[in-house]
Amino acid sequence: MHKELDVYIEGFKRFKENWFKSGRKAREVFKDQSPKVLVIACSDSRVDPALLFDADPGDFFMIRNLSSLVPPYVKDSSFHGISAALEYAVCKVNVSHIIIIGHTHCAGIATLMSDDDSDTEFIAPWLHIAEPALLRVNVMEHVDDEAKHRACEREAILVSLGNLLTFPGIKERVQAGKLSIHGWYFNMTKGTLERWSGKDKAFIPLVS
Fold first, then answer.
1. In a 3-state reduction of DSSP, which class is residue 35?
2. Which residue spans of the chain are classified as CATH 3.40.1050.10?
3. Helix intervals (H) in the chain
4. d(CA 188, CA 152)
5. Which residues, at least 6 apart from 167, have a Cβ–Cβ distance to it below 8 Å?
6. Which CATH number fits domain 33-207: 3.40.50.150, 3.40.1050.10, 3.90.190.20, 3.60.130.10?
C-alpha cells in the first residue's frame, strides 16, 4: 500500500466508527437513497459539495465533471454519462432540486479562455459546451482579465442552467412546479456563496 494513501485509510476507519459504531442509523442511511437534491459540481479537488455544505451520506445525488457543465440534450447512440445521471436523478430518484455549483479559479474555464486546449482529445470538445459564456465575456469592455475570468465562470453556470431545460423530462417538471433548478457560485478566496436570481438578472449573496 502506498504510504500517501494511509491518511485516507485512517479516515475510513473514523468514518466507520462514526457511522457504524456510534449509534447513528447507518443501516437506514445506506439501505436506500432518497435525496431531494441533485448537485452538479466541478471535479476540482478543492470544491467538494459534501464538505462545503456539511452534508451527510444520502443528502445529495452527485454529478461532478470538468467545470460543472451540463451538455445540451442530444438523443443518439453515443455514451452520455452526464445525461444518464440526470435522467436517473430526475426520473428514478425524483429529486426536487438541481443545484449547479460553479467556483472561482476554475481551471477548466481558464483553459477555455486561454485557448490552451487545442491539442487535447477530450477537454476541448467538453469545454466547447461553455463557449456561449466565453462569447458573452469577450465583448466586455474596460474589464481586466481577472474580472473576465470571474464573469465567465458565472456565465458558464447560466449556460448549464439553460441546457438543463433542453431535457424534456426536466423542462416538463420545472414547468409543473415539481422541480426547481438553481445556479450557485462559490468564491473560494473570500468564502462566499452566491445564487443566480432570474428576477434580478444577477448573482446575489446567499452567504457573505
1. coil
2. 33-207
3. 6-20, 26-31, 49-52, 81-87, 107-114, 123-127, 131-138, 145-164, 168-175
4. 16
5. 73, 83, 86, 87, 90
6. 3.40.1050.10
> Which grid cell sits at 197?
436570481
The alpha carbon of 125 is separated from its chain's Cα centroid by a whole number of angstroms, namely: 18
Q: Which three cell numbers stand for residue 126?
A: 467538453
Cβ-Cβ contacts under 8 Å for 103 (sequence gap 6 or more): 42, 44, 46, 47, 68, 153, 185, 186, 187, 188
CB of 39 within 8 A of CB of 67? no
Place of cell 437513497: 33
In the numeric block, the cell 452566491 is attached to: 194
Q: Please report, in tens digits, the pLDDT of each residue of the chain (208 residues total).
A: 688 999 999 999 998 888 887 666 676 778 889 999 999 999 999 999 999 999 999 999 999 999 999 999 999 999 999 999 999 999 999 999 999 999 999 999 999 999 766 678 999 999 999 999 999 999 998 889 999 999 999 999 999 999 999 999 999 999 999 999 999 999 999 999 999 999 999 999 999 8
